[in-house]
Amino acid sequence: MSELPENAAPPAEARSYYGRPVIKAPVWEWPVPAYLFTGGLAAGTAVLAAGADVVGAGRLRRACWLGSFGALLSSIVLLVADLGRPERFHHMLRVAKPTSPMSMGTWLLTAFGPGVAAAAIWELLPERWRSSWPARLLRTVSRGVGLASAATAPGVATYTAALLSQTAVPGWQEVREELPFVFAGSAAASGGGFGMVAAPPSEAGPARAFAAIGAAGELVASQVMERRMGLIREVYHHGAAGRRRRGADLLTAAGLAGTVLAAPRSRIGAAVSGIALLAGSALQRFGVFEAGVESTKDPRYVVVPQRQALEAAGRDRAVSG
Amino acid sequence: MTSDAVTRELAEPPDALARANGYDEPPPRVGFFTDTSVCIGCKACEVACKEWNDVPDDGLDLLGMSFDNTGMLGANSWRHVAFVEQRRPAGQQGDGWALLDEMTAEVEPRLRAAPRGGSELGTTPLPTAPGGAVQDLGMPTFTRPGDGTGAETRTDFRWLMESDVCKHCTHAGCLDVCPTGALFRTEFGTVVVQQDICNGCGYCVSGCPYGVIDRSPLDGRAHKCTLCYDRLHDGLTPACAKACPTESIQFGDLDELRERADRRLADLHQQGVEEAQLYGRDPGDGVGGHGSLFLLLDDPEVYGMPPAPVVPTRYAPQIWRRVGAAAGAFALAAIGAFVSAAVGNRP
Asked: Which residue windows are transmembrane per the record (chain A) (predicted)?
């Protein structure tokens, strides 16, 4: 039994049933926002790795395939761990349902994963085995499927916005226009940040550019999202979600400045900037996730916008009739 | 392809529901008509539902919300009787003590501090108020209500009761987002979870705009009203409707229930009960109408239901267009990063 905070929520402006929530709070816990981050990271590093392979930046390629593979494995563990019945994870593969973003995401990851795994396994082969014919075959295959994975990566990086927005959760549904861009920017910033941490500055030019574009895009999209919010701005501003979102903005802005100013010259500057971008991306995911959860707990966030929509529809009818 | 499929699904006329879901010669769509104007709050529906469907008990908690100690629909409560005490006259009845505001003031801040904001009401007790004060539930007592304060504190009084249940929506958010196919549309037009398929992903919990379905902490799977799918196969009435002593819960073919609801509404309006309204009757609403209709004596939110919910699937085409644009921007950023780095490296 938990203790009440002294500053409990202000009374609802809408009528309610004893102030109880209208919709259920999500059953999802921290593994889901953690996956939003690792999934974005896996996608961001995969496109960098494939690009590095094309332009011949070997150390960036190696670091990013390994990073992508690690993030992908973490994602799978997190996704399975959050199921009520983890041993039935494969039931996701029974159907392909366009109406379910989770089903679409399952198939996106299924298309994305094998190429990343093949490319990463080749990177892990010891030097002395690489001239053997099975290794050369693996290299040929993994180059192709790795590029194919990079082609699905933009989908992996952004579908999670649909996953959250196609729900009855006001804090996620009402930001459906902007959230895909916030998540795309966040994924690019984290992928670029990882490349800056793991590859030497001489090879990390594309990672810096990708991180800078992503971080700038995320900051702009996040601002636009916040400007357009109605009542739910409260849940994005207050409490833990508000703190995480402010932290995300600060770290992403600092990481962006470091990426442009320090990262091209200094290995340490690059590493610090990269870590700031990674942390900013993770905080963004947790902030958005928790804001949504919070918006389910007060019936006002559900009832007030629906009442407003009813009134607007009533006015339209009065005008046209 | 995604948005086409969604548009097609949403465009189906509601009465072709089972046919549209692949049944060749489906029986008529069935549902409930819950007429709250004759509900007496006996909770026989809650008990019959638990008995027939073997729904687990979820603890004995006094919630401080009038006679409602179930709290809300959930994995282990497929019928829920709401009790609302209001300061307004009810027909010919005299004055009384309506405590909705006082009880809300007690309960609401405790709900905010409860796990999942009270989404598991009825399965866990509410946290205590600041300072550990215990809420006075006002019962049982050997004196008459108000004896201590005098007749002058009496107000107009009416008591609303409503047996809530899954709406079996024409366009069901839970069903649309289910990634395993565990949730399906039956030949009767109802929405049911296949327990041998559900892997407890929890997406349906957030896909439902009514807060009906929930994941059970006992077995990790999603549960809700099946409209007694097993009884329907044998031509039987669902357990709750069978047990209802006042026919507040009526079961039947949806077309007939809609007519009955319209007639009852007209009767009540004629009798001067102008606040009577139907909920879920309009096939043009945000979920394409309910399979479970309600006649309410106040706005839906007073009973804890959303006033104008929209199935999240309706936003899917818009959402996927934005996701597509963001994915395109992501891909362009990646290509741009390599091009700009190559240009920058040129001596």
From this structure: 34-56, 63-84, 104-125
Residue B2 lies in a domain: no
- The answer to whether the CB atoms of A158 and B330 lie below 8 A apart is yes
A12–B206 C-beta distance less than 8 A: no
Residue type, A184: A
- Concatenating the DSSP letter of every residue in A69-83 gives HHHHHHHHHHHHHTS
Q: Is the pLDDT of residue A289 over 90?
A: yes
Backbone angles phi, psi at B42, to 5 degrees: -80, -20
Report DSSP letters for A126-191, one per residue: -GGGTTSHHHHHHHHHHHHHHHHHHHHHHHHHHHHHHHHHSSS-HHHHTTTTTHHHHHHHHHHHHH
Q: Which CATH superfamily does the domain covering A31-320 fall into?
A: Formate dehydrogenase/DMSO reductase domain (1.20.1630.10)
- Name the residue of chain B whose CA is nearest to A154's CA: B327
Query: Number of Cβ pairs closer than 8 Å across A and B?
Result: 326
The alpha carbon of residue A235 is apart from the nearest alpha carbon of chain B, in Å, by 13
In a domain, B118, yes or no: yes
Residues in chain B predicted with pLDDT less than 70, given as ranges, are 1-15, 89-98, 121-125, 129-155, 345-347
For residue B313, the distance in angstroms to the closest alpha carbon of chain A comes to 6
What CA–CA distance (Å, rounded) separates A167 from B217? 21
Quick check: is B328 in a domain? Answer: no
Amino acid at B38: V
> Domain boundaries in chain A?
31-320
Q: Which of A155, A168, A307 sits opposite B173 (nearest CB)?
A: A168
Q: Closest residue of B to A155, CA-based?
A: B327
Please identify among residues 21-50 of chain A the ones whose CB lies closer than 8 Å to any CB of chain B. 21-28, 43, 47-48
What's the total number of domains in chain B?
1
- CA gap A282, A284 in Å, rounded: 5
Cis amide prior to B14 (ω within 30 degrees): no
- Asked whether the beta carbons of residue B112 and residue A9 sit closer than 8 angstroms, the reply is yes
Question: Which residues of chain B are within 8 Å of residue A309 when distances are taken between CB atoms?
Answer: 308
- For residue B28, give its domain range: 18-310
Query: Does residue B342 belong to any structural domain of this protein?
Result: no
The predicted complex's ipTM stands at 0.94
pLDDT in tens, B9-23: 554 444 578 888 888
Residues of chain A positioned with their CB less than 8 A from the CB of B318? 176-177
The model's pLDDT over A54-77, given as tens digits with 9 standing for 90+, comes to 999 999 999 999 999 999 999 999
Write the CATH number for B23.
Answer: 3.30.70.20
Write down how long chain A is: 321
B208 belongs to an annotated ligand binding site: yes
Q: What is the mean pLDDT of chain A?
A: 93
